[in-house]
Amino acid sequence: MSNLNGAYYGPSIPPPSKTYHRPGKGGGGGGCCGLFSCCCGCLCSCIFNLIFQILFTIAIIIGAVVLVIWLIFRPNNVKFHVTDTTLTQFDFSTANNTLYYNLALNMSIRNPNKRIGIYYDSIEARAFYNGQRFAATPLEKFYQGHKKTNNLTAEFKGQNVVMLGSKVSNYDEDKRSGVYGIDLKLYLKIRLKFGWIKTTKFKPKIKCDLKVPLESNGGSSGGFQATRCKFDW
């Protein structure tokens, strides 16, 4: 090829190649994604803070209501006593590990509160000897008004297998003295009444540690001492 005007320009230079970037890849999409993540984080933080503030406010309101109710009604613990017992049989057979019993208990329940009534929706009395339950009986449900005292009777009669094991010696000692260490437990389901407000059910337990004398031929091995029971939470 002949040179134009005697000058040589060399080989032709190819045009620059074009670079294509797909959306979401590379530096261009990252800024948008970071902005969206920042907005999401702020929104979630605001929602969690709002929920926390609502729950905190509700807790404060409930606490204030409970405090006001307590200041108004000033609740006192209900008092449980076993006032009298009658035990005419309490025989344990080592041959078949069976306890034969005939026991009656008189109890008093005192509500000392001036503005609180109590619904006794369920009462179950259970009798224990050396940690072993040998009898149980349901008692009548009732409503107890302000500053009222109610009397109940629980009767246990029959026979049951009781595994005393090494504690048979405790029974022998009680038999010689004529006074038996019997525990009474009351399992309650109660509701409280504040004016027209009724609470949900509570399930307290009452425990009475008793020393019960055996009666024989119309007499006893010693008079029973009225015993105050305690809450067994």
From TrEMBL:
<dbReference type="InterPro" id="IPR004864">
    <property type="entry name" value="LEA_2"/>
</dbReference>
<feature type="transmembrane region" description="Helical">
    <location>
        <begin position="50"/>
        <end position="73"/>
    </location>
</feature>
<dbReference type="InterPro" id="IPR044839">
    <property type="entry name" value="NDR1-like"/>
</dbReference>
<dbReference type="GO" id="GO:0009506">
    <property type="term" value="C:plasmodesma"/>
</dbReference>
<keyword id="KW-1133">Transmembrane helix</keyword>
<protein>
    <recommendedName>
        <fullName>Late embryogenesis abundant protein LEA-2 subgroup domain-containing protein</fullName>
    </recommendedName>
</protein>
<feature type="domain" description="Late embryogenesis abundant protein LEA-2 subgroup">
    <location>
        <begin position="107"/>
        <end position="207"/>
    </location>
</feature>
<dbReference type="GO" id="GO:0005886">
    <property type="term" value="C:plasma membrane"/>
</dbReference>
<dbReference type="Pfam" id="PF03168">
    <property type="entry name" value="LEA_2"/>
</dbReference>
<dbReference type="GO" id="GO:0098542">
    <property type="term" value="P:defense response to other organism"/>
</dbReference>
<keyword id="KW-0472">Membrane</keyword>
<keyword id="KW-0812">Transmembrane</keyword>
